[in-house]
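batch job 7 of whatever, protein = Serine/threonine-protein kinase BSK
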Amino acid sequence: NGDQVEQENQNFKEFDLNELRKATNGFSPSCIVSEGGEKAPNVVYRGKLEGNHLVAIKRFSRQSWPDAQQFVVEATGVGKLRNKRLVSLIGCCAEGDERLLVAEYMPNDTLSKHLFHWEKQPLPWEMRVRIADYIAQALDHCYNENRKIYHDLNAYRILFDEEGDPRLSTFGLMKNSRDGKSYSTNLAYTPPEFLRTGRVIPESVIFSYGTILLDLLSGKHIPPTHALDIIRGKNALLLMDSSLEGQYESDDATKLVELASKCLQSEAKERPDTKFLLSAVAPLQKKEEVASHVLMGLPKNAVILPTMLSPLGKACSKMDLAAVHDILLKTGGKLEGNHLVAIKRFSRQSWPDAQQFVVEATGVGKLRNKRLVSLIGCCAEGDERLLVAEYMPNDTLSKHLFHWEKQPLPWEMRVRIADYIAQALDHCYNENRKIYHDLNAYRILFDEEGDPRLSTFGLMKNSRDGKSYSTNLAYTPPEFLRTGRVIPESVIFSYGTILLDLLSGKHIPPTHALDIIRGKNALLLMDSSLEGQYESDDATKLVELASKCLQSEAKERPDTKFLLSAVAPLQKKEEVASHVLMGLPKNATSTDVERTVAMRNEEREVLA
């Protein structure tokens, strides 16, 4: 066994850049397997080396690792880890501006897919316990090998091999930046010590493991603070995924809930260590003799490649609106007359009744306002349920706020976004469209003038009974957690989370933000890139408005008229066009945008 490990260690290599280009067809978008497509900060590609050996290739920006030698040293260290519970890192490349990691390819997708977006069957209880056990084993091995810090442990970091066994990605063992910071833009499940100090410590991974336990128990993303409130209220079994009914003993579920609670303690020193995780989870496995692929309903030893959808099909299947926008440009996705559109594809399960879908879409399509993206049509043929909207050429708020390239959004533009979206919501409210589903930074898009507009896709019900927030509860209004229903006041809560995004430039869980505000440290929320751009009184007013919107009692939140009255006076540069504030070319037409994309594609080809 020792010889085998030594031999495997020797297999770690520094790859030639041309070899990895060839393996990914020139880093083709069609080979991307990570969420977020090309817009992700660090993209993961599926590649094929000589001998048809499949690998996963993660591409970092040079800014993350300006020192090539440091990158190679770090990768080589991680590459020495070999364990059946880990996805082995088998190589790296640091040529020119490229920083690439090469790992084993896991053919059976991620925990996120199997837990939140399952198609044939939900993950059974016994498989969820096995995942908790195997990941605890992986973390314990890393700890014993002095790799005690794991960055951003989440359901995307857990992958399934050809046997259906879960393994922990070694990508998370690499620092995402020179100083080891992580959680750079998504703070929804961030260990409290990172919020306080901006640093990750070994105990942070235990907190993140606790969030994985919550995912496994509930089948949803539940903010830790909400989960702990439920647990303290002696209602622990309310956390449980209803699809698991009858599969587990209540004592076993209670033990896992209690373990999650221990992991999620705000004081790092109060959390258990990896040995405790193992001792707590291992005894709960009751069907160790049953293979994982059987529990998961996978064919034995099947190497299942991801379905080779077209880029547009892949983006539609993920409901990735931003990716759909890019792909429509790149592939000439237009209606007759070169009219660019955005098309959202629902599953038939969401809308089994075609007529009901058309009626709902027609109602939303009647809304016309300069602050809304107009819905211009729909299609309900066979199993297809499609919405067609105006195309917004200047991307999403998420892109400009969290993944900006040239400049961060200036203060005045952030205030304008808050104002214009309040106008959009007020118009919807006045037109008796009082429920908006999952308002977030992806729902706010920028038109050819650079003005922000609210997507009308969010006005459509995502299912027959009108539920939303079905798998992502990180920013969920408390009433949905209590009742499973969305009410008109829920959109005000979500607007409050948008204000937090705009103020901080990060995803900050509302509960953490409110703690900071109550501590009279409101300005600690502010994005450091905005320093010197705003008056503290104006920032305080926006923070106070966010606080009002985020009240746990729906009746205590303001209405849309109040939002308008609070935000409009904060605009100080109304005479400056949005495209100027954002540094965009004036009145970029679809042809201009296509030309820009074509130039980018040519640049990629030259680089390749």
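notes: The domain at 1-105 is CATH 3.30.200.20 (Phosphorylase Kinase; domain 1).
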